[in-house]
Design goal:
- With 386 residues, this protein is mainly alpha-helical.
- It folds into 2 domains: 271 residues, Hypothetical protein af1432 (Orthogonal Bundle), CATH 1.10.3210.10; 88 residues.
- The chain contains 13 helices and 5 strands.
- The two termini are 43 Å apart.
Length: 386
């Protein structure tokens, strides 16, 4: 059961002079000292009617869209923080702009959001999660009518961080247990902010249930170790399970004051090697959507064979060379041969624990060595699978 928290303005817990933008050291002026002047974003600013063009042109459009979304999110965070109410009408066009860009060139928005200044991390991260969730929904074949709401859920998933002190968001060292508790409150705080904000804004700004659910539950984990409700498995909605992967991936691939950015391959490898934290089936869709497979990853091919991603400097990260070694249907090991990219498409990353692969790190290393010339024959590779 959740504790009800009412947000009536900056005076709830901090002095108005103490409020800061997430990721900055500069106080925000109180509402009375800062007139609210907002520009309206039209279709042209968000390139809503643009035709498909080159990747370079779409990347320039994506920069405009991300810049507009960043500013509108900063305004939204401030409005909710100071109890002005939440205007969903201003956010829907942003989601439409991001969705339109993804439909023209899926990589453009995601490429632009990879570059984050630490002073605006919270906002650009929210845009990135919005784009990742829309792309994932497309990859999973979810009804197109739901993509817009799923995107808005990504855009607002971290709004509760408006209540988290900046010094904790940007702390260079490890958080204390008490500080971790404060940061973890952002999921519940965000949910309460959205409920309170839409109540103040009236019936014209009702939020879809998907948005509220993702805000509250994007830190739940399928093994029950997440927060705030320690939900497990399918008790967590599919949208919150999608958000968990998108949120973790973008956070891992972003540089922060307290850590360097992981590569996309490293992030996918981490997610795949931690069974129980994220939904394995959704992760398979996500890895195909991202189109980057780390060397040595265990993958399933369309032919229902397990394979290892090979190191191929001249290859394609979207369709890399693989070495199939086990047939799922016949439950037989296979002769080790390099398979050319695209002949047997990858359908997703697999977890070694799912297939009871004994000594998987050693097996993987041996297969990779076989194709780097370090092992003489395929017979030198022993594969133990139960």
């Amino acid at each position: 059961m959740h504790t009800k928290i009412r947000f009536t303005g900056a005076g709830d817990s901090l002095l108005q002079s103490e409020w800061r933008q997430p990721g900055t050291a500069n106080p925000i002026a109180p509402p009375a000292e800062r007139p609210v002047v907002r520009r309206t974003l039209g279709p042209a600013a968000l390139h809503l009617g643009a035709r498909k063009a080159s990747v370079a042109q779409e990347r320039n459009r994506a920069r405009d869209i991300v810049s507009a979304a960043k500013q509108e999110l900063a305004n939204t965070f401030e409005d909710v923080r100071f109890g002005r109410g939440l205007s969903v009408d201003k956010l829907w066009p942003l989601v439409s702009g991001i969705q339109a860009s993804i439909s023209r060139h899926p990589s453009a928005v995601l490429g632009v959001t990879r570059l984050k200044d630490r002073h605006e991390y919270t906002y650009v991260h929210s845009v990135a999660v919005c784009g990742l969730m829309i792309s994932l929904a497309r990859q999973m074949g979810l009804p197109p009518a739901s993509h817009h709401e799923i995107g808005l859920a990504g855009l607002l998933h971290d709004i509760g961080k408006a209540r988290v002190p900046t010094m904790l968001l940007d702390k260079p060292g490890p958080l204390t247990p008490d500080e971790k508790d404060i940061v973890r409150n952002h999921a519940l705080w965000g949910y309460e902010m959205l409920i309170e904000g839409q109540r103040d804004a009236g019936s014209n700004s009702r939020l879809p249930q998907i948005v509220l659910d993702v805000c509250l539950h994007h830190h739940e984990r399928v093994d029950g170790t997440g927060y705030p409700d320690r939900k497990r498995g399918e008790d967590i909605s599919i949208y919150a399970r999608m958000a968990a992967i998108c949120d973790m991936y973008d956070a891992m691939t972003s540089a922060r004051v307290y850590k360097a950015a992981s590569s996309p391959a490293e992030a996918l490898e981490y997610l795949a090697s931690n069974p129980g934290k994220v939904d394995a089936e959704i992760l398979r869709h996500f890895s195909v959507m991202i189109g980057i497979f780390p060397v040595g990853s265990l993958v399933r091919l369309r032919s229902d064979r397990l394979a290892v991603i090979l190191d191929d400097p001249e290859g394609d990260s979207i369709a890399p060379a693989v070495c199939p070694f086990f047939c799922i249907q016949t439950k037989q090991t296979l002769p080790l041969r390099r398979t050319a990219p695209g002949l047997d498409p990858i359908v997703g990353i697999e977890l070694p624990s799912r297939w009871n692969l004994s000594c998987w790190p050693e097996t993987r290393a041996a297969i990779l060595a076989q194709f780097s010339g370090e092992a003489a024959t395929a017979d030198s590779v022993m594969i133990d699978i139960n």
